[in-house]
Amino acid sequence: MTVVADVLPIDEALAQYDPVMGLEVHVELNTRSKMFCGCPTEFGAPPNTQTCPVCLGLPGALPVVNARAVESAIKIGLALNCEIAEWCRFARKNYFYPDMPKNFQTSQYDEPIAFNGWTEVVVDGETYRIEIERAHMEEDTGKSTHVGGATGRIHGASHSLVDYNRAGIPLIEIVTKTIEVPPAKAAAVAKAYVSMLRDLLLALDVSDVRMDQGSLRCDANVSLKPHGSSALGTRTETKNVNSFRSVERAITYEITRQAAILSTGGKIVQETRHWHEDTGITTSGREKSDAEDYRYFPEPDLVPVAPAREWVEEIRATLPEAPPVRRARLQTEWGFTDLEMRDVINGGALELIVKTVELGVDASAAKKWWLGELARAANESVKELGDLGVGPEEVAEVQKLVDEGALNDKLARQVFDGLVKGEGTPAEIIEARGLALVSDDSALSEAVDRAIAANPDVVEKVQSGKPAAAGALIGAVMKDMRGQADAAKVRELVNSKLGI
Q1: Where is the Asn/Gln amidotransferase domain (predicted)?
Q2: Mean pLDDT of the chain
Q3: What are the strands of the beta sheet with 104-107, ordered from one edge?
């Protein structure tokens, strides 16, 4: 059973301590082959079918650097305003896990390919600058599955299975410098940063950034220091957090947990911690190693990487718009106010709205659905918008039906409810739920006649010079037709029958 630590309410924690963060984001690249061999990288293949002597670390096997991975690393570095090394090399990072077939990870240590960068994120209308320490190349590990326990972790498991398909897949690790922002904004800034990175990496076309598949994951380092202190506290590292919401929740939890310990005179242990999505807490993993514990030394089987300056500039010329420039352009094109654009960004809906607009939907209509009905469903199910199972194509299809008069907004909301619940396509949901808008003139005319006959007092008001009173008749018809009447046609029929 997971033991829940004592925590201090977040307001009390932030009243005493300033959080300091450092974020390490691991990005699996979308290359067709692995970092140092020719094995394929498709997700979901049968276990241990995408391996070879190189990625299994067999004696005598020699690695070769993936040129496409180097190019992707340079793209990421340039997009984050980093300096690109004229010369860098790989190192061996020595530590043992069952899913490390070589018993070391080929990574970069003191000579990364990209360093000294920066980027910006916007939270609640305020811009925060995030300094980038480095973006370096490395290889991913395999994957262990622990069987027989209640939690899926090694503790309590009867045995473990190892799949080496993922071992050797190209990774870029993006490491920030310390992040100090207004205490109340810390977790939100972290969430916004990871969200911004995902959008940037998609635009660069270097990764599919599927957080649910582990191709984008965040390690969140958190420490606390008393107000006014310049000395950094002892940090913990919460590993492999794989959603934007979880980044925010994990950091918030660590702040409250560490504050509870410090406020009673305790000490923070420098360690890695596991994030539990179901309970919203972190638990201890292992004491955190320092750099010297990994016994880094240069990789003897790989030559240094020395990207030509001409090649770097060619890559720079292919970069898409910087995120702030793109956001400003989209805001102008869409006609959104600063507040509306802030809501779009904070809600994680920017790319979803972009794709919906590309399918021919008006930006305001796209925003209405993504930040309204779908955002509500995401909050209720504790999911990200992009994980609801509803995509821009479905939103565009529903809005097209609204534009054609086949649905009204009330019926469209029911269609979205069906989409979120997995009831099928919009057409299937409309048929199954009987949601088609009634536009048949004879049926509507009969409903209008019934409303007029049932409301003589309203008819008298309308005919005595108060046309606005006709709204009550329209409402009665809509109720009679269970909201499935074409309101515009109803109004026309009411006005015609009453001579207004």
Answers
A1: 351-498
A2: 90
A3: 104-107, 91-94, 297-298
Residue 1: pLDDT band with limits 50, 70, 90:
very low
Give strand pairing partners of 217: 26
Tell me how long the chain is.
500
Provide the pairing of β-strand 271-276 with 236-241. Answer: parallel
* Interatomic CA distance for residues 73 and 251, integer angstroms: 27
- Name the pTM for this structure: 0.78
Where is mean pLDDT largest: 37-41, 230-234, 484-488? 37-41
pLDDT at 458 over 80: no
453: confidence class by pLDDT, cuts 50, 70, 90 = confident
Q: Which residues pair with 219 in a beta bridge?
A: 24
Distances (CA, A) of 352 to 195, 227, 246, 393: 13, 40, 20, 10
Q: Is pLDDT above 80 for 260?
A: yes
Q: State the DSSP string of 394-431.
A: HHHHHHHHHHTTS--HHHHHHHHHHHHTT---HHHHHH
Give, to the nearest 10 degrees, the angle between helix 323-334 and helix 363-371: 110
Side-chain-side CA neighbours of 413 within 13 Å: the count stands at 11
75, 292, 290, 305: CA torsion to nearest 10: 10
Tell me the pLDDT band of 423, cut-offs 50, 70 and 90: very high
Instruction: Name the nearest CA neighbour of 208 among 353, 41, 38.
Output: 41
pLDDT of residue 437: 64
CA distance 277 to 211: 14
Task: Measure the CA–CA gap between 206 and 308, rounded to whole angstroms.
Answer: 20
- List of long-range contacts for 271-278, beta carbons under 8 Å, 24+ apart: 271/236, 271/237, 272/236, 272/237, 272/238, 272/239, 273/236, 273/237, 273/238, 273/239, 274/153, 274/238, 274/239, 275/238, 275/239, 275/240, 275/241, 275/246, 275/250, 276/2, 277/243, 277/246
* Per-residue model confidence (pLDDT) at position 37: 97
Residue 236 has pLDDT above 80, yes or no: yes
